[in-house]
Design brief:
Layout lengths: L8 E5 L4 E4 L7 E4 L5 E5 L3 E5 L7 E8 L15 H13 L4 E5 L5 E12 L8 E9 L8 E4 L4 E4 L8
Antiparallel strand pairs: 1-2, 1-7, 3-6, 4-5, 6-9, 7-8, 8-9, 10-11
C-alpha cells in the first residue's frame, strides 16, 4: 500500500539526470537559517552588532530506507537500501553539488552532502536507518577587473549595491 502525500522528498544529481525519491518521509525536517553577524563591545555605547552576509542554509533529517513494503511507503517500487546508500555516498564524495527538493516548501536548492550516517538496527534486516545533513551550495561569482596599462587604474564591473 502506498501512502499518497502532498510532500515528496527528492535528492537529484548531475543536472537532474540521477534522482532519488526518498521512500519514507522523515518525521522531522530541520532547516537552519543562521547568521555570521559579529558584535563588538564599545566603551560608552555597549554592544554593537555588525551585520554580515548570510551563511549557507543547513538542512537535516533522519529517517530510514526500507527493505520491505509497509503502509507508510511513498514510492511504487522499493530500491534496495544498500544501493540507495551507495549512490548517496558516491554523490557526497564527488566534486559536484546535489539538489534537494521538498515539495510544498521553499526547500529547493543545491547542496553539498555534509554527513550521511547509516545505522542498521536489529529486528528489521536490510532496512537502513540514517541521519543526513546537507549544506547549501552557492556558485562563486567571479567579478571581472579591467586594468588600464597606461594609467594603471583598475575598474571593477558593477555589482549590486549593499544597503548601508
Amino acid at each position: 500500500m502506498i501512502t499518497k502525500s502532498a510532500r515528496q522528498l527528492w535528492l537529484t544529481y548531475n543536472g537532474e539526470k540521477e534522482k532519488i525519491r526518498f521512500p519514507v518521509l522523515p518525521e522531522k525536517f530541520a532547516v537552519s537559517f543562521g547568521n555570521s553577524n559579529t558584535s563588538v563591545d564599545i566603551s560608552g555605547l555597549g554592544e554593537i552588532v555588525i551585520l554580515q552576509d548570510r551563511p549557507a542554509i543547513e538542512v537535516s533529517w533522519e529517517s530510514f530506507l526500507p527493505a520491505a513494503r509497509f503502509p507508510g511507503l511513498q514510492v511504487d517500487s522499493i530500491t534496495p537500501p544498500k544501493q540507495l546508500l551507495k549512490t548517496i555516498c558516491e554523490w557526497k564524495a564527488s566534486d559536484k553539488p546535489a539538489h534537494v527538493i521538498l515539495t510544498g516548501t521553499d526547500v529547493n536548492f543545491y547542496v553539498a552532502i555534509q554527513i550521511i550516517q547509516p545505522v542498521e538496527k536489529g529486528g528489521d534486516p536490510e532496512t537502513i536507518h540514517y541521519q543526513i545533513k546537507l549544506k547549501e551550495y552557492r556558485e562563486v561569482q567571479v567579478r571581472q577587473v579591467a586594468v588600464n596599462v597606461v594609467t594603471q587604474v583598475a575598474t571593477v564591473s558593477p555589482q549590486q549595491t549593499r544597503t548601508d
